[in-house]
Structure formats: structure tokens, C-alpha cells
Amino acid sequence: MSKRHSVAIIGAGIGREHLDAYRQLPERFEVKTLCDLNEARVREVLSESTEVQSATSVDSVLNDPSIELVDVCLPPHLHFDLCKRALQAGKSVICEKPLVSSVSDADQLIALTKQTGQSIFPVFQYRYGLGGLQMRKLIDSGLAGKAFTGTLETHWNRGSAYYEPQWRGTWAGEQGGAVLNHAIHMHDWLSFIFGPVASVYADLATRVNDIEVEDCAAISLRMHSGALVTSSITLGAADDTSRLRFCFAGLTAESGSNPYAPAQGKWTFTAREPNQQEKIDDLLNEIATPAASYMGLFTAIADAIDGNPGQEVTLQDGRQSLEFVSAVYASAREHKPIALPLTSDHPSYKGWAPP
Ligand SMILES: NC(=O)c1ccc[n+]([C@@H]2O[C@H](COP(=O)([O-])OP(=O)(O)OC[C@H]3O[C@@H](n4cnc5c(N)ncnc54)[C@H](O)[C@@H]3O)[C@@H](O)[C@H]2O)c1
What we know:
Elements: E1 5-10, H1 15-23, E2 29-35, H2 39-46, E3 53-55, H3 58-62, E4 69-72, H4 79-88, E5 92-95, H5 103-116, E6 120-122, H6 130-140, E7 147-157, H7 178-181, H8 184-194, E8 197-205, E9 216-223, E10 228-234, E11 236-248, E12 251-254, E13 268-271, H9 277-285, H10 293-305, H11 315-334, E14 338-339
Parallel strand pairs: 1-2, 1-4, 2-3, 4-5, 5-6, 7-10
Antiparallel strand pairs: 7-11, 8-9, 8-14, 9-10, 11-12, 12-13
Helix pairs in contact: 4-5, 5-11
The protein binds nicotinamide-adenine-dinucleotide (NAD).
């Protein structure tokens, strides 16, 4: 029987959702500590619970030998330092998106994982759900075939209440806008389904809120496979919807519009040749509903630690998402397509924020 992995969650904002998911996986994880500078917030999250201890200092967590995994749920500009310190303290790390603030920082963390023998698992929980698994199986079975085009919509609604925490909406704190912080999940999805991006052309604008960073984007992508994709992003929609549509030689796939769990909504898979629909439906009928969202991600992480990797989000995936973001900001600034991968001598390798 595999052992339970002991976790400390650092940051009690989205950390609350992480805690809920770990609690639903009691055979895989034990949350020992919830740490936040804001003691009242921790108290509120833990409420009557006695099984999780509270802490206000990250040092106490890093010095606790009983903690195996540090789950970083801090604002983005604090991720790199805590990931580094946790690895050096002999812990493995789960880190919320965006992983760090540059591809160069991601490369430093990759080197540090090799030195310390510890792992970092970036968070992209949108991948996990029945629709997402069905899409993957259709690709792996060959029924989807050659990828032609895709469209991604991240149309969410964010107003002044969202920007109350001072770190949000700024280059120094949030590190970027809707491309970095909201659509990052959809772009991770894209690479997960269509493979790596070859080049990107982006137009960005701040049109919805009075903030430093972008809240609208129109992005055009060419994939390594040759497939063409468009990504439309705004934080000025009437409500929150996320939608993906992929056209392959064998079928067209369309997600539902669940904003924060697009892999879980109702997907449709329509054969281009009607006589192939039965084969598609037969394969879909064989797929059992998997653990979704954070539960799916954490299950995949526990499996990877226990020696069965393959379903987790890898550190390379986290790096790739930052490479994409760097290219988007560079393209918008230079008004030209940017080719990927980004080389270490590219001006955006060390960060995408404006000079
Ligand atoms: N995966 C997702 O869908 C998703 C959703 C929301 C947020 N996030 C990410 O989660 C991260 C946190 O976002 P949030 O919305 O929870 O932010 P938040 O501001 O609501 O919470 C961050 C918490 O960190 C605490 N904190 C700050 N510095 C600290 C320190 N040195 N030690 C201990 N605690 C400290 C703050 O007191 C605060 O309670 C961000 O990277 C964000 O992008 C991801």
C-alpha cells in the first residue's frame, strides 16, 4: 500500500480549494499545516478543524521534518523564492500558476530539482475531467487524426472587487494580466492537446479595468504540427465562460462552457465521416469518469511520487507555459510573430515585464 504524503499549504486564498481537494483524498494525502501571514484567514478556513495546524511563518514549515510536500499558493512574485527554499530544505513542491516570473527562473528551478533530487509539480488543474480524458483518448487512438485548427475563448468578468488585493493588476505583483493569469490554463490545454507552439502573434489591450496589465487579447498561433489556432481573451464579459473547439481530420471536438473546469463540462465529438461516429461513441463509452480538477491533479501527483508518473503536470510543462507567455508579450510589444522555443539570448528569456 502506498504511503500518505504529508503536505503544508502556504497561502489561504486558493489554498482553501487545495485543502478541500486533499481532504477528499485521505488515502493519498495528509495536510499537516496551513500557513498564511494572515492568521484570521487561516482560522476562518480551518474553522473547527483540529487535524490541520496553523502557522504564520514559512520558516517553521520548512524546518518541520514531518512535511514532505510544500504547496505554494502565494501571489506569483513570491513563487520562485519559496520554491527554491523548499527544494533546498529537502521538500518537493506543488506550485500554483504562474510557476515563476521568467523562463530563466524556471531553468534555475529545473537545475535545483536535479541537485536536490526533489520535484516541482506545477498546477494546471483544468486538464483533469471526463471531457479532457475523452479528447486525449480520441487522439491517442488515432480517431482524431491530423489537427487542423482550434479556437480558445477565455471570456471572464473581473471588476474592481477582484483588484482589491494590492498585488493584482500590477506588473510587480501579478506579473502580467489576463494572458498570464487567466488564459494560462487554456494555453496549457492547447499544448496538451495539439503539442508545442511554433510561433505566436499577439495584440493586447487594457480596456476593462484601470490596471497596469492587459485584460483583453487576440492571439494567433501556429503549432509545430502546422495547425492554426486563435485565442480570444477578455475580463470584460458579462459572465464567466471558457470554451475550446478543435477541428481534426477525423472529428470536431467542442467543450462546454464551464469557466474553471472546461474538461468537466459536456463535450461533443462529431465525426467528419458519419460512418465513423459509432467508433468514436464506442470509445467514449469505455471511458470511466476520472477524478477531476484539483483532485485529478493531486491524484496524478501522488501517483508520480509513488512511482507511476505520466498523468501529472511536469516542470517542463510549467516552463513551456512561461515560454509561451514570454512570446505573447514580446510579440505584442514588437508587433511581429515570435518563434518558439525561446532561446536563452532572447530579450524576454529573463522576464516578460516591460522594461
Ligand atoms: N489554479 C487556479 O485556478 C488559481 C485560481 C486562483 C488563484 N491562483 C493562483 O494562486 C496564487 C494565489 O492566489 P490567491 O487568489 O489565493 O491570492 P490571495 O491574495 O487571495 O491569497 C494569497 C495569500 O498569501 C498570503 N501570503 C502572502 N505572503 C505570504 C508569506 N510570505 N507567507 C505566508 N502567507 C503569505 C496572503 O496573506 C494571502 O492570504 C496565485 O499565484 C494565483 O495566480 C490559481
